[in-house]
Amino acid sequence: MQLIKEQRTFIVEKYFQAKSFQQVTQSFQEHFPERQSPTKMTIWRNVTTYRTEGTSLNLKKGRSGPKRTGRSEENVRVVQGALTENPQISARKSGIDVTKSTFNRIITLDLKWHPYKMHVRNKLLDNDLPRRLNFAQWFLQRNVRFVDDIVVGDEAAFHLNGKVNDHNVRTYAPKNQPPNFKLT
Predict the structure, then answer these.
(1) Residue 96 contacts residue 79 (beta carbons within 8 Å)
(2) Taking the CB of residue 98, how many other CB atoms lie within 10 A of it?
(3) d(Cα 87, Cα 99) in Å, to the nearest integer?
(4) Alpha carbon distance 136, 130 (integer Å)
(5) pTM of the model
(6) CB 3.0-4.6 Å disulfide test: which of 23, 84, 141, 160 passes with 18?
(7) pLDDT higher than 60, residue 183
């Protein structure tokens, strides 16, 4: 369990008064009977931190873990510029010298953008309802094993007119502000 500010201050003050780990431990136990006495190493770390940093508070927050090199301000500006120029840019094909994971972290954590997927919806016409009803009745008349024989895939479809099914296309935009998709 971490020491609270009052306990850290007490340890440092008692150590500078007594210059003895044993006396600090005894005084701590008397002053904080509900708490286990700190070890010699805990006392030493608090005193050393106070001498080097001017405080014995926990300074690990923001200092621990790997250094944040990929999400530098320069990289954030570069990614933001690339997205402004082309919101459909992908992490792998961006041409920016950052890893895919760094690219995605910058978009979501720093820029607060979200990848939106376009969903194409067909407009239902008046004569579609009877055709859909006929298909549903036909489907229900098939035997139970019929469904097991149907193969459904989620692959890209290439059309003779040159269009490609764009199910993998994402457009980046600020969260809660979806882009206006234009059909060509």
Answers:
(1) yes
(2) 19
(3) 18
(4) 10
(5) 0.42
(6) 23
(7) no
- Residue 138 has φ and ψ, to the nearest 5°, of -60, -45
Q: Which residue type is seen at 106?
A: I
Within 8 A by CB and 6+ apart from 15, the residues are 21, 24, 43, 46, 47
Q: What pLDDT is recorded for position 157? A: 63
CB-based contacts of 143, cutoff 8 Å, min separation 6 = none
Instruction: Give Cα 103 distance to the centre of its chain.
Output: 12
The first and second tokens of residue 171, run together, are: 């457009």
- pLDDT by residue (tens digit) across 130-147? 998 998 898 888 877 777
Which range of 13-27, 78-92, 140-154, 161-175 scores highest in mean pLDDT? It is 13-27
DSSP 116-149: EE----PPPPTTHHHHHHHHHHHHHHS-GGGGGG
